[in-house]
Each structure stands twice: as C-alpha cells, then as structure tokens.
C-alpha cells in the first residue's frame, strides 16, 4: 500500500484532484491510500467548498487555512504547515498540481524532507518569467521525482531543459521519471459533461440560449492589477456585447471583482454594469461552468484551465494573454492570442466567428488518472 499526500489550495487544483480521488476510490483503493491537505489558498465557499461537494472529493484531512497574502508571506505559511504534517506522518509521496503558490510550497517542504514529489501538469512553460506561475512550475519540476506532462509539448519542454538527458538522482538512488500521462482536466471534463447537462440550471437561471452568448473569465494578475490592461479588456467586452448585440456571461474571480472597482474608471464600470447584455456573475460551480462552456458560442479567457475546456468542448477561444502554455490550441486555429489589446480582441472575435478550426484529441484519452496512479504504484 502506497500512502500519498495530495496538496491542493487553489480552485483549479481542487477540481483536478477530483479525477485522481475518483480513480483511487474506484480502482486503486487496495494499493493507494490518499490523504488530502488543503492549504486554504482559496477559501470562499464558491472558490473551494462547492467543488468538494459537487465533485465528490473527500473532505481534506488537513486544512492550513493560510488565506490570502503577499507571495512570500503566503508561501512561507504553507511551507511551515506542510512540513509539520510531513514530519508527523509518513508518506510515500506528495502529489502536486500545476503552478500555484500551494504547488511551490508543497515542493519545497517535501523535497527538503526527501519525500518524493509527483508533479501533475509538469513541463508547461509560458517562457514569461514575469508570471509567478512560471517560477512555481520551474521550481516544482526541478524538485519532482515523477513528472506527469499532459501534452507532447510539455514533454518537449522538459527535454529541452535536459530532463531525460541528465536525470537527477533522488533519495534512495531513484531517478527522475518523465511521462506523457494526458491531462486529468480532460478526464474530468468528459466525466462530468453529461452530469452537467442533467444537473445544471444556469442557462435558464440567467436566460442564456445555447450558442448565442460568450463566456468570459479574467483573473490573471497582470490583467487585473494593471489599470491599462483591465480597461482595454472591459472596453472590448463592452464593445462586442453592444455592437454585436450578444450576451457575455462573466463569472468573476474574487481578485477581479475587487480590482474592477479600483482599476476601472467609474464611467466604464457604470456602462458595463448598465448594459443588459453583460452578466457579471459570482464564481460558478464546476457543473455550471461546464454548462456555460458547452453552450457558449465562443469563450474569452486568460485562464489556463478554461482555455483547455474550450478546446475539449470544441469552442473557439480568445486568449487574453500575450502567450499561452497550451500552444496546441492556437496551432489548430481554435484559439487566437489577443493579449489585453482592444483591437486584437475585436479582430479575434470577427475571425473566430467564421473560421474553420480543428479539435484533435491532444490531451490524452480521459484516462490520465489511471496512467498516473499506475506509475505511482510502481515507483
Ligand atoms: C491563484 C494562482 C493562479 C491560479 C488562480 C486560480 C498563485 C500565485 N496564483 O491566483 O496561478 O490561476 O489561483 O484561480 O498561486 N480571494 C478571495 N477569496 C478566495 C481566494 C482569493 O477573495 O477564496 C482574493 C483575495 O483578495 C486574494 C486574491 O483573490 O488576495 C488573489 O488570490 P490568490 O490565491 O493570491 O491568487 P489568485 O489570483 O487566485
Ligand atoms: N471554474 C469554475 N467556476 C468559475 C470559473 C472557473 O468552476 O466560475 C473552473 C474551470 O472550469 C476550470 C478551473 O476552474 O476547471 C480553472 O480555474 P481558474 O481559471 O481559476 O485557474 P487557472 O486554470 O487559470 O489556473
């Protein structure tokens, strides 16, 4: 029996953890025991608890309740808390997801105590070192014993950094391993798609018709924290909603909700709030989000996860960033990088409303969790 500690903290990590927990419950309960540690990075009901309930994720065994804070302060509290738990109980490995401060803290705490790290979503790179996520994922990859890359691009990125050529040796003489496991988010999106069709009422609740609205999410720090960028994005949303008479549903991340009031001019906020086509919603549950994604005409986002879900559900996507880790989406003409630039966003909307795009199966076969768990059992 292998005993693992899953460290999660931010919304997308909680959602991703559902895929592994479900596979452990269904197929690996005789070989893997999982305990869950929630750092408390995200804590609002609609950023955390709702996902545990809806996606049947076991209640966390530990919650550090660190809350929000500056990077160093928040990460330091997490490292101290995770370290205590790793010292108090033996684990054969720590499972880390993605690139948040919770990922970084888990990587630092576990590596110093020689606990093997299994990194899910390894190898992704934006090549933009201004992003806190790029720093977090590079550090975590370096410290990991098994790197589960979700795409061929992620494997290639790791090879370019010398991963398979110069394998590191970890505690107990073990070598680092790199695998293309596919994407656990694809597992989840396929598993919950029909459940969302049956259970979600969000379209009715907000009067949305299939294929006649845009779904938008914005939360990336360089978009929310910059007056100029946030203004350009919201000017473009306003223009598209008004000019093309199309509804735009925006489930707003709490970070953005707070900064909207600070970084947008009162005139623009008032115009946005008064336009009936723009629906600013609180963060929605995962099943509601799937329903919005599956039924949207087009998706606009700076989220990593939402870009991919757009692709899984075969929706065109305007990427509100200057680059993406998910280059396959752009290569298949299913997404356009428009940055936070008014003209580029409006042009992308016009192009994607009429262009031909393809959605090949690039993110695995919806069995990534099983591939990952087989390797963990064998490690
Ligand atoms: C974090 C991750 C980011 C990920 C995102 C997913 C880091 C550095 N960033 O960004 O990679 O894409 O989560 O959503 O780890 N807040 C609340 N309630 C909450 C959580 C946050 O009000 O439950 C507000 C607080 O004002 C907080 C702000 O949102 O200061 C930012 O939260 P934080 O977790 O620091 O970063 P995110 O922007 O959420
Ligand atoms: N999501 C959700 N409700 C929302 C917005 C997003 O359930 O209101 C889900 C979304 O479907 C995806 C994940 O949260 O699975 C993406 O998280 P987020 O955009 O916060 O972070 P990122 O992926 O950029 O790290």
TrEMBL record:
Keywords assigned by UniProt, alphabetized: Isomerase
Domain UDP-N-acetylglucosamine 2-epimerase: 30-376
Recorded GO MF terms: isomerase activity
Entry keyword annotation includes Cell inner membrane: no
One Pfam family hit: Epimerase_2
Domain of life: Bacteria
Entry keyword annotation includes Isomerase: yes
PANTHER family hit by this protein: UDP-N-ACETYLGLUCOSAMINE 2-EPIMERASE
Family: Belongs to the UDP-N-acetylglucosamine 2-epimerase family.
UniProt name for this protein: UDP-N-acetylglucosamine 2-epimerase
Record lineage: Bacteria, Pseudomonadati, Bacteroidota, Bacteroidia, Bacteroidales
């Amino acid at each position: 029996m292998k005993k693992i500690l899953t460290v999660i903290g931010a919304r997308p990590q909680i959602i991703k953890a559902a895929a592994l927990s479900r596979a452990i419950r269904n197929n690996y309960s005789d070989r893997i025991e999982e305990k869950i540690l929630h750092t408390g990075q995200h804590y609002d009901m609609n950023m955390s608890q709702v996902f545990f309930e809806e996606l049947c994720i076991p209640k966390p065994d530990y919650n550090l309740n660190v809350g929000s804070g500056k990077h160093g302060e928040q990460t330091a509290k997490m490292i101290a808390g995770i370290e205590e738990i790793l010292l108090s109980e033996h684990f054969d490995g720590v499972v880390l997801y993605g690139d948040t401060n919770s990922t970084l803290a888990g990587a630092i705490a576990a590596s110093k105590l020689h606990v093997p790290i299994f990194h899910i979503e390894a190898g992704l790179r934006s090549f933009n070192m201004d992003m806190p996520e790029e720093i977090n994922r590079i550090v975590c990859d370096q410290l990991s014993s098994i790197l589960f890359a979700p795409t061929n691009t992620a494997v290639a990125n790791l090879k370019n950094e010398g991963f398979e050529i110069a394998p590191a040796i970890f505690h107990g003489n073990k070598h680092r391993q790199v695998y293309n496991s596919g994407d656990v988010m694809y597992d989840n999106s396929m598993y919950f798609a029909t459940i969302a069709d049956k259970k979600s009422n969000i379209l009715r609740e907000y009067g949305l018709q299939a294929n006649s609205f845009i779904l938008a999410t914005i939360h990336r720090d360089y978009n929310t924290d910059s007056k100029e960028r946030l203004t350009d994005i919201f000017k473009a949303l306003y223009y598209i909603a008004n000019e093309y008479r199309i509804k735009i549903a925006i489930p707003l991340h709490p970070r953005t909700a707070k900064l909207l009031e600070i970084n947008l001019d009162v005139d623009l906020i008032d115009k946005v709030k008064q336009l009936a086509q723009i629906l600013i919603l609180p963060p929605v549950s995962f099943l509601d989000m799937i329903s919005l994604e599956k039924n949207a005409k087009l998706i606009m986002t700076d989220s990593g996860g939402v870009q991919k879900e757009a692709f899984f559900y075969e929706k065109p996507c305007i990427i509100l960033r200057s680059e993406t880790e998910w280059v396959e989406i752009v290569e298949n003409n299913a997404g356009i990088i428009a940055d936070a630039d008014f003209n580029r966003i409006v042009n992308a909307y016009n192009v994607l409303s009429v262009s031909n795009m393809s959605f090949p199966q690039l993110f695995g076969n919806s069995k990534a969790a099983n591939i990952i768990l087989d390797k963990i059992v064998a490690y």
